[in-house]
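Lab meeting, item 3. Inverse folding demo.
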């Protein structure tokens, strides 16, 4: 490549990075991204509450996952307004994560790739939930458990689908482990400005309990994917709702599910704190 072409390419790259950085750091997007953390907290509090209801034998009509939480909001007075706030907030948070991925800088190529993959994964996840919330806001409905079963059945019917489903299960299980480790080691605190004194200790405590509980729930989702692949039974892969309900089959399963539900609520409360304290 000639020096002039190289210079133009470099300038274009810098220009694209500058645009991404400017968009990411805009006050409007930052405010909406913080709103995204807050509405994510609402969803987790609802999911945790539904899980506790399932453990106590009440409220089993709603799925203990994002779809169940969004459905509960859709049927509540004023819930449609909250759904639109969720759509905007999570869409903004998803875009913010994608811009973060575009701005990752690390001299270590492996670490850079891992960081980019993580930011992209979170961005896509937030956008996917925003789309589901939009479906409910427009009067439609969605069932995460059924969608997961259908996805698993499609994979199992494809050549090599069993191995791909195992790989997905292992990947989801790894994400669950990351959440648990992040909670135990309190590494999540590097993403927030921890207040001094009792408030800071409370925020950290919510984060520890919340990350560990969410990690356990996500890890069980991954295990169910692996079980579905091993048994060639897509009905075993039921997403977060099925993962939480499967805990009831364990010894002291009701108590375990209640504990996880409380932990998921703690994660939701932590998300509220993160909405204010996040380093954006």
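The presenter then showed the designed sequence:
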């Amino acid at each position: 490549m000639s020096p002039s072409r190289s210079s133009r390419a470099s300038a274009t790259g810098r220009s694209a990075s500058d645009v991404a950085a400017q968009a990411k750091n805009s006050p409007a997007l930052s405010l909406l991204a913080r709103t995204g953390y807050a509405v994510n907290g609402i969803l987790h509090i609802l999911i945790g509450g539904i899980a506790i209801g399932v453990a106590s034998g009440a409220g089993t009509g709603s799925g203990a996952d994002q779809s169940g939480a969004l459905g509960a909001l859709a049927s509540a007075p004023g819930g449609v307004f909250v759904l639109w706030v969720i759509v905007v907030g999570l869409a903004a948070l998803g875009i913010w994560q994608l811009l973060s991925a575009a701005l990752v800088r690390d001299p270590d190529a492996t670490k850079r790739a891992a960081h980019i993959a993580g930011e992209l994964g979170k961005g896509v996840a937030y956008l996917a939930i925003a789309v589901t919330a939009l479906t409910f806001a427009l009067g439609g409905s969605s069932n995460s458990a059924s969608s997961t079963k259908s996805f698993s059945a499609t994979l199992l019917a494809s050549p090599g689908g069993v191995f791909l489903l195992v790989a997905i299960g292992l990947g989801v299980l790894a994400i669950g482990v990351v959440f648990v480790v992040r909670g135990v080691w309190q590494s999540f605190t590097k993403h927030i400005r921890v207040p001094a004194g009792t408030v800071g200790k409370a925020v950290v405590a919510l984060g520890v309990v919340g990350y560990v509980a969410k990690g356990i729930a996500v890890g069980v989702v991954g295990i169910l994917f692996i079980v579905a692949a091993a048994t060639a039974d897509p009905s075993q892969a039921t997403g977060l709702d099925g993962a939480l309900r499967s805990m009831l089959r364990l010894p002291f399963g009701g108590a375990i599910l209640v504990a996880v539900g409380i932990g998921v609520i703690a994660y939701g409360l932590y998300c509220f704190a993160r909405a204010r304290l996040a380093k954006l």
